[in-house]
Amino acid sequence: MGERPEVLKLMEMRKKALLGGGKEAIEKQHAKGKLTARERIDLLVDPNSFLEVDMFVRHRATEFGMDKRFAYGDGVVTGLATVGGRRVVVIAQDFTFMGGSLGEMHAAKIVKAMNYALSSGIPVIFLNDSGGARIQEGVDSLKGYGDIFYMNVMASGVIPQIAAIMGPCAGGAVYSPALMDFIVMVKGTSFMFITGPRVVKAAIGEVVNEQQLGGAEVHATKSGMAHFIANNDEEAVGIIKKLLSYLPSNNAEDPPVVQTGDPPNRADPELDAIVPEDPNQAYDMKEIIRRVLDKDTFFEVHELWARNAIVGFGRLNGRVVGVVANQPAYLAGVLDIDSSDKIASFVRFCDAFNIPIVTFVDVPGYLPGTRQEHGGIIRHGAKVLYAYSEATVPKLTVVIRKAYGGAYIAMSSKHLGADFVAAWPTAEIAVMGPEGAAQIIWRKELAVAKTSEERKKMLEKFVQEYRERVANPYVAAGRGYIDTVVKPRETRPTLIKALEYLVSKRETRVWVPPKKHGLMPV
Ligand code: HXC
């Protein structure tokens, strides 16, 4: 028996909907090296898990020939699915219909999907590929953007929001990804800017192409807008899946615990020799991070931006932690404007989503100079203090080497509420570096040196004296500002013990004065 006519009609409509803007447009999309919205979703979600919503939504516009143009779905595919067995809401713009441009109904679908995510506590994944506001729909399209931005803000800190930029994303449209927690960009095929090359040229005469203005590399290295970059759509989807595996579904849940098979009491003798004897010599902090965390679990965020700081996720005894560190191998690990922003925003994300923070410290201070001062290093640096002080998740700190001055306080010190601070025997906790300090303390003595050679020798002696008396972990440990001094090899077992004991820390048991919201310097 054949299908009933009503069912045949449904099948016909589904077939049409699956084609979006049509075969030709799909071929064009492929020719650009991009997958379609549906192909991207297929790659992302578990087989047969996708529950599509609003497949038959159509726009209501009639002007500018819109009454003769429509596609079921209106240029965006939305629904619920699982990724690695965990629920997500997926929004994928379909460039094949009118360039994925956003009109009234397109926006309404996105808002509906976000409502599912918010009310059920499910992360939202938004795959952007759009020419922006649908020009024919005018203010209805602007209203749609406004509604989406509002939802992004309502969802902020409640559910993880992940954006991938997989094509154009221009004008005000950039503010939805900007309000989300993570942005993945695809090299070559994606770009993000407020005003495109043509307007830039007309307005200020600057000649620049789309990629130079807002391509993936630019946002990953210069603006810091892209947390991750991928070589193609497949890789971008892979990054999203990996990122999700570290995140809880919402702010009322803990991140997933997995068995990593790495023994919690594994000591690592190689760590004992990792810090060079010369205190001014660089080393790679990532080596320490990798050795301390469960094997192969470090997942760096913002890898290419503000490389004097390191942030990322990892696991300790299977539990997710957020890792923050200074990187002595880049600009000596100083704090500057960008690294302060990088650290502050990551710490706040971890705090919002119940992810304990482990901080590895080797910081000589703040970057000096007019560029930093005039750029507002005071304001940006303050964000680090704010974010750490405000965070109520377990905060564990390891002082590896330098912890000087204000930067010592900022980097998750006991004074900002760190729960457990360990130091290596190589730690130098002081107001400033021994060289500078010795020149101030022994200024008069140094002034009487007859030759520069004599002065140099005296200074060396004073520096040594300062090091012995001050620049070590024991003065701070004597006051209880450092909870314990550990052999480097013992770092992992010690951190895991601390984490296992402190993991039940909850914001409801930490006193914070009642307030509407604080005012983080921005
Ligand atoms: C309506 C659009 C569109 C838009 C693209 N299309 N953008 N239709 N509104 N915003 C249509 C094209 O007309 C074309 O239709 C199809 O989508 C594919 O576009 P192409 O131009 O062929 O693709 P490509 O060469 O890859 O170029 C993509 C593009 C370009 C760079 C995005 O289309 C473009 O510059 N579009 C205009 C972008 C723009 O000005 N948007 C408004 C920005 S302001 P046909 O029928 O030929 O297939 C904005 C404000 C948001 O977004 C405010 C929020 C607060």
What's the helix and strand layout?
Layout: H1 5-18, H2 23-31, H3 37-44, E1 51-53, E2 76-83, E3 86-93, H4 104-120, E4 124-128, H5 138-155, E5 161-165, E6 168-170, H6 175-179, E7 182-186, E8 191-193, H7 197-204, H8 210-214, H9 216-223, E9 228-230, H10 233-244, H11 285-292, E10 299-301, E11 309-316, E12 319-326, H12 337-352, E13 357-363, H13 370-375, H14 377-390, E14 395-404, H15 405-410, E15 420-423, E16 428-430, H16 434-441, H17 443-447, H18 452-469, H19 473-479, E17 484-485, H20 491-502
Parallel strand pairs: 3-4, 4-5, 5-7, 6-8, 7-9, 12-13, 13-14, 14-15, 14-16, 15-17
Antiparallel strand pairs: 1-2, 2-3, 10-11, 11-12
Helix pairs in contact: 4-5, 12-14, 16-18
The structure holds hexanoyl-coenzyme A.
What keyword list fits this structure?
522 residues; alpha/beta; 2-enoyl-CoA Hydratase, Chain A, domain 1; 3 domains; 8-stranded mixed beta sheet; 7-stranded mixed beta sheet; 39% helix; elongated; binds hexanoyl-coenzyme A
Short summary of the structure?
The chain is α/β, with parallel strands linked by helices and 522 residues long. The protein is built from 20 helices and 17 strands.
Structure description:
Helices cover 39% and strands 17% of the residues. The chain is built from 20 helices and 17 strands. The chain has helices spanning 5-18, 23-31, 37-44, 104-120, 138-155, 175-179, 197-204, 210-214, 216-223, 233-244, 285-292, 337-352, 370-375, 377-390, 405-410, 434-441, 443-447, 452-469, 473-479, 491-502, and strands at residues 51-53, 76-83, 86-93, 124-128, 161-165, 168-170, 182-186, 191-193, 228-230, 299-301, 309-316, 319-326, 357-363, 395-404, 420-423, 428-430, 484-485. The strands form 3 sheets. Strands 10, 11, 12, 13, 14, 15, 16 and 17 form an 8-stranded mixed beta sheet that branches. Helix 4 (104-120) runs parallel beside helix 5. The chain is elongated. The model has no long low-confidence stretch (mean pLDDT 96).
